[in-house]
Amino acid sequence: MAVTTLDSKTALIVIDLQKGIVSLSSVHPMDGVVKHVTALASAFRKRGLPVVLVNVAGGAPGRTEQPRNHREFPPGWADLIPELNQQPQDHVVTKRTPGAFTNTGLVEHLRSSGITQVVIVGVATSNGVEATARQAYEFGFNITFATDAMTDRDAEAHSYSITRIFPRIGETGTAKEVIDLLEKSA
């Protein structure tokens, strides 16, 4: 379903746009993703709506079939990219799991601000973005995805999340469509 509306209490959640991750290869040029994310962040801030900047600073415990390179990342790897123009009022979440809600206090922060909807963007579509979205859905938030403001390392996984998962739990559209809705509601 296309983006139809934004609640008056909507927050932007930006997943893992940090120095180490944006330096990795991705299926869409990272500069385009960053451009769309920064436009969204600017539009949310202009309207006094919350911006949540999420980074990942280590891996979750437990065994997996695929080896993990880092439980702890090298210095600077988890630093948010400067293009995000982090502001004092932005809420920063550091996570150690794919989803931004696990053991971070994010749900409490959003609820205490009266947030009923989230717009989720970032990297990787099939991991951090999808995991955060699934958690937001389970917590009862309305969800919108700006699909041109996200990317993945795997084209098939990116496409599957956007075409199969996201339409089941929220609405999808472009960053411009979200910004246009913000402007109409102002």
TrEMBL record:
Gene: yecD_2
MF terms (GO), sorted A to Z: hydrolase activity
Keywords: Hydrolase
Enzyme class: hydrolase
EC number: 3.-.-.-
Protein's name according to its UniProt entry: Isochorismatase family protein YecD
Pfam family, one: Isochorismatase
Isochorismatase-like domain span: 10-176
Superkingdom of this protein's organism: Bacteria
SUPFAM superfamilies: Isochorismatase-like hydrolases (SSF52499)
InterPro entries: Isochorismatase-like_dom (IPR000868), Isochorismatase-like_hydrls (IPR050272), Isochorismatase-like_sf (IPR036380)
